[in-house]
Structure formats: C-alpha cells, structure tokens
C-alpha cells in the first residue's frame, strides 16, 4: 500500500510551525458557541421515498476518503456509483464544526434544506444537530450492514439508538511520548501532571472534551455524563499544573512538531497523528492512560431536506467491511466497522496490525465518549478556556 503523502505533507508543515490544520479529528472537539436559543425540538422524521436519487450530495472533511494518487479519483465513490447508478457530488467543505454550523444555521433553523444529503460532523456537533431537530431519521431498513457497527460506538449519549447518525471514522485521545527522552514508559495522566522530570516538557490539548475527558477519569469521574462539581475539581487540578509550569502549553495538532523535535517529551495526543508521526519515528509511543482514554467520532448525518433513502443506502455501502477497509487504509483513522480489520489484512497486514487504526476490544473498553451536551455547554467551556488562556 502506498501511504497518502499529501496528508503527511500537511502534518510536516504543521511540524515546521505552520498554522493549525483543519484535518478531520484535529478539530474533532472544537468548542461550540453553546447555541440553544433556536429551540430544542424533536429531530425531523420524513416520509422516505424508496427510490434512489440521481445524485448524492455529500459534505465531508478534507482528506477523509480514499483517493487514487495517480488518477485523483475516489475509488469508494466510484464503486458506489457502479453498484447503484448514483453519482456522488463530494464536497470537502467541513473544515470546522462551528464554521459549518454557522454557514448552515439560518436555513436549518427555518426548516429549509441546505443542498446536502449527507454530512459528517463530530460527536458534540452531531448532538447539537439532533437536539435542535436539524437532522432526519435514518432509513434503517436500507442499512442492514448497520449490524457491523462496533459495539463501543453503538450507543452514544446524543443518539443512544443511532436513529439519526452512523459513525464515519473515529480516533482515540491518549498519551504520546518519546521514551528516549522520558527515560521510560509514560502510562498515567498523573505522570504528565506530577512527574518533576517532565516539568515544562508536557502539552495538553485545547479541545475541552479531549483534555477534560482525561482529567475527569483521573479523578474517577465519568466523562460520559459530566458532573459540574467533578468538572470544577478537575479544572482546579489542571490549573495547578499550569501554574507550576508542569504544562508547557495547550496545543492543537501542532504538538506533533514539538514532539518530533524533542521540545516536548510527553503530551495528550490523538491516535491519528501518532500513526503519521510513527512513520518517521517508530520509537514514539501512544498509550491509553491507565485511568482511561477518550474516543471521538465523526458521524454521518442526514440534514433537513436531504434524501433519506439515498443517504441511508450509501451508509449501508460503506459499512461493507471491504469498503470500510479500503477507506481506513487511506485515512488511517479507526474504522467503526466490524470485519474491516480482517479485510485490511488482505490489503496490508502491517496496517491491520496497527492498534491505532484497528484497536482490539480490550483497548476499546478503556476509552469513553465525552458528554455531547457538556461539550456544548457555554459555562463549562468558559471555565476551560480560562485555564487554556492562562
């Protein structure tokens, strides 16, 4: 398999000090603006026409589906067209959850379509879309392959029955470190916060669900349903680590360059980044903290006005393990599809063995999904930003 150099080039640009990137997952947990004033309504249910549309209009993040580097075609989309006759209008216009919402909010709040049948948004924004009634119920009868959804992602708090969403890809949040500099394993968040030899060589993430999801578990609290008192306690501990100089800074994906150069020895990191960094430096390690890690997911949703049957048919297509493996081989994030690993072994045994792309069940039991409503809570975000900006 040929690795997607275009994606690595972007990471290397960040390592040289470029602007933060807007790759999927890098902005996976960006803070929203806490909008609830538009009214919390039941998500839209529409009568489903059992006929495929001529075109599927699909919004996604950049570099988030397989591309033939020679022809620049997208094999997965071409195969879908061959099987169904549906052309795919694929638009890479989801550069940031809030930005996407800002562009489409006015139309959605009026019950109008946005010229999209399918879009991919991160857990907390997907939760907002469902709460505000801006999504349509899936046609589950058109998605028999939904039975291939991995158990760990089957019941998020914002959509416990997956009536309105299906995962596209996921990533884990844990600890990345360079054992040559740390002198040994870094397996606990408490080491990042308290180990004196790491003082000033540690970074945490600016995304609240990632950082606070780990901090809550450090104190034995559950990030799936955030308790305000527990959140405040975790914030105080994080602030103390900032005040002492233990934490060097809060970053987006630009920690990757700091880690690669040795300016940072250990950090809160995303699994997708670490897959790419390990291509150049196999000695780097990524672990789920002893206390527990986080898993975030970018989800397929059918916005108001989208063609439910055609979008649901596409979801069924990408939940075929062969297709899911094909996508994972390019994007290097976690496939939500059971059986994709076995299919990936046929493409690239090394890829299939990578725990950051195909984590085993034991690993998945150690990660949790952050409370989507808490991630979109203005008061909690302000408390977190006060520490990040300190």
Write the layout of secondary structure elements.
Layout: H1 5-15, E1 55-59, H2 75-84, E2 87-91, H3 97-109, E3 118-122, H4 123-131, E4 165-177, H5 179-182, H6 189-194, E5 202-205, H7 208-218, H8 228-243, E6 247-251, H9 255-261, E7 266-270, H10 271-280, E8 285-287, E9 293-301, H11 308-318, H12 321-331, H13 340-347, H14 349-353, H15 361-364, E10 367-368, H16 372-375, H17 378-388
Parallel strand pairs: 1-2, 1-3, 5-6, 5-7, 9-10
Antiparallel strand pairs: 3-9, 4-7, 4-8, 4-9
Helix pairs in contact: 1-9, 7-8, 8-17, 12-13
Highest-level CATH class of the largest domain: Alpha Beta
Helix content: 25-40%
Oligomer: single chain
Beta-strand percent range = 5-15%
The first-to-last residue Cα distance is 45 Å
Query: Low-confidence runs (pLDDT<50, min 5 residues)?
Result: 1-37
> Biggest sheet, in brief?
10 strands, mixed
CATH topology of the largest domain: D-Maltodextrin-Binding Protein, domain 2
Q: Quick one: CATH superfamily of the largest domain?
A: Periplasmic binding protein-like II
- Strand tally, please? 10
In short:
The protein has 390 residues and is α/β, with parallel strands linked by helices.
């Amino acid at each position: 398999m040929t690795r997607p150099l275009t994606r690595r080039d972007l990471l290397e640009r960040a390592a040289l000090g470029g602007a933060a990137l807007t790759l999927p997952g890098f902005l996976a947990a960006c803070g929203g603006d806490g909008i609830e004033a538009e009214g919390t309504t039941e998500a839209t249910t529409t009568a489903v026409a059992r006929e495929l549309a001529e075109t599927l209009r699909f919004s996604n993040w950049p570099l988030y589906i397989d591309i033939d580097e020679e022809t620049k075609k997208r094999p997965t989309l071409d195969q879908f067209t061959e099987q169904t006759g549906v052309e795919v209008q694929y638009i890479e216009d989801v550069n940031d959850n809030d930005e996407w919402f800002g562009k489409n909010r006015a139309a959605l709040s009026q019950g109008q379509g946005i010229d999209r049948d399918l879009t991919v948004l991160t857990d907390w924004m997907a939760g907002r879309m469902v709460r505000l009634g801006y999504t349509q119920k899936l046609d589950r009868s058109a998605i028999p392959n939904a039975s291939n959804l991995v158990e760990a992602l089957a019941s998020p708090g914002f959509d416990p029955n997956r009536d309105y969403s299906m995962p596209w890809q996921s990533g884990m949040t844990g600890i990345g470190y360079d054992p040559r500099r740390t002198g040994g394993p870094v397996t606990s968040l408490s080491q990042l916060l308290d180990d004196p030899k790491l003082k000033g060589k540690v970074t945490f993430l600016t995304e609240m669900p990632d950082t606070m999801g780990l901090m809550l578990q450090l104190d034995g609290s559950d990030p799936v349903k955030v308790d305000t008192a527990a959140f405040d306690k975790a914030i105080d501990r994080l602030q103390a680590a900032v005040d002492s100089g233990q934490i060097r800074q809060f970053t987006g994906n630009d920690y990757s360059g700091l880690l690669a150069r040795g300016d940072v020895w250990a950090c809160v990191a995303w699994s997708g980044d670490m897959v790419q960094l390990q291509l150049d430096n196999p000695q780097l390690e990524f672990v789920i903290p002893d206390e527990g890690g986080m898993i975030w997911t970018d989800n397929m949703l059918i916005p108001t006005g989208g063609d439910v049957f055609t979008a649901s048919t596409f979801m069924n297509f990408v939940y075929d393990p062969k297709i899911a493996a094909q996508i994972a081989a390019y994007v290097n994030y976690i496939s939500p599809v059971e059986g994709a690993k076995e299919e990936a072994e046929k493409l690239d045994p090394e890829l299939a063995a990578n725990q950051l792309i195909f984590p085993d069940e034991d690993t998945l039991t150690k990660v949790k999904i952050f409370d989507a409503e808490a991630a979109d809570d203005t008061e909690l975000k302000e408390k977190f930003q006060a520490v990040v900006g300190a």
